[in-house]
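Example 3.
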Amino acid sequence: MPYSEAFKDHLVHPRNAGELADADASAELTNPVCGDRLRLTLRIRDGRITAARFLAYGCPPTLACGSALTQMLEGITTQEAAAITRQQLTKFLDGLPPRKTHAAALALETLHAALDAFESASEADQE
Amino acid sequence: MRRVYLDNSATTPIDPRVVEAMLPYLTEKFGNASSVHFYGQEARVALDGARREVAALINARPNELVFLSGGTEANNLAIRGIAEAATEHGRHIITSQIEHSAVRGVCDALERRGWEVTRLPVYDNGIVRPEDVRAALRPDTVLITVMLANNEIGTVQPVTEIGALVREERERGRKYLWLHTDAVQAAGRMPVNVETLGCDLLSISAHKLHAPKGAGALYVRRSVRLAPQSIGGHQERERRAGTESIPLIVAFGRAAALAREELEGRIEHLRRLRDEFEAGVEATVADIVFNGDRERRLPHVSNISFRYIEGEGLLINLDMQGVAVSTGSACSSGSLEPSPVIRAIGRDEELARGSIRFSLGKDTTREDIAYVLEVLPRAVENLRRLSPLYARASNVKCQVSS
């Protein structure tokens, strides 16, 4: 299966590339098998993601998933973000080749790691 | 959008003169070269003519050539053919770590069936050392298979020196040792002479010479006996059964003749443009590493590793701007297969993942190179801006300079 036009557009014109200096949540995960790496930084206000940025190293699907995910995240609540599925992310890119779906898994695992870190930090503040 | 094809090591555009030569054999001249009647004889004449042309390209005798479907089949016939024919004399094969998968795969398959395989290193210049071949020789070695020039980095291997070593062994009375070389990338891009090389078997492919895909040849020195891998017909002196594809072989013959006539000019043109390209990349893109010996290599290849980014991303970026290149690394199902060639020359995983092969062709122009030099630095920069490795390295550099 060739890459979709939406996929290639994200690759060549990535959305939200970079890092938020004043991030409320961040995570960087590496796929231990292939070495692909994704860094996600989020700004969260009143339970809503107001900004998301990504940096990625690895095969094109990892880059495109990072770009697509940050676009999906902006403006939604952290609960809505946590519920994003691999299928939704893949659909946002008009599909991924079957052997490349691990990239969507890495993107969502990085998101969950960032949200978990944010939640733990918030709980610690309340205590 | 301008299109620039820099993937001539994968395949080459078909030369219109080659198309012209083959067309009658796709239409009115359709005979089977094994038939006795007029149509058959017409095909036979064409087959013999093509055989002379391809043989001339490598300085072989026409009856030493076996036509087949391409480089992969040639490598299969050479290696399996010798291994199976020489079983009673030994089951040890010497090869290199940077062979094309068509050689690597056959050696791996034989190993699973009980043969022993020694895979020689290539060091950081991407070249096998003849002394390593000598050291690896055993009484039961029956075949040495080392490519003439590498398909990813273009490095030219010391096949002549290895051929001299085999001759030396023969002079000492050794009978059952043969030398095969995969010359698929080399033919048409450097002089190839089976006598100078001293090889017993040599593989070539038509589609790397501006002919269509589907034809190739194996040179088999007179007196070398092979176990055929395709049986059931008398074609090709019973070394490869099956009706010959006359149109494809005629095309191969014409392409070989053109390659021979134009060889010097092509080499000069390719080397000049390739060197211009490399100087341009060096001047505009930082943090790059050239892969393979820069002197002892084919004139049309430039293999470059771009730090902090991955090859496939760069490939797609360039493709979207009309530039076709290739990368030796592949990531699928979450497992990474960095190019074995780039790893064999000692590059770390990041450099192996970030390697791109640019391979020029006889029709590549200076304007093509200028266009690539315009889009490539931007594409690299765009990908680096996304890379956490680059962000980290840049921070370190800033801290150092401040």
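Chain B has a mean pLDDT of 95. Chain B touches chain A through 24 residues (CB under 8 Å).
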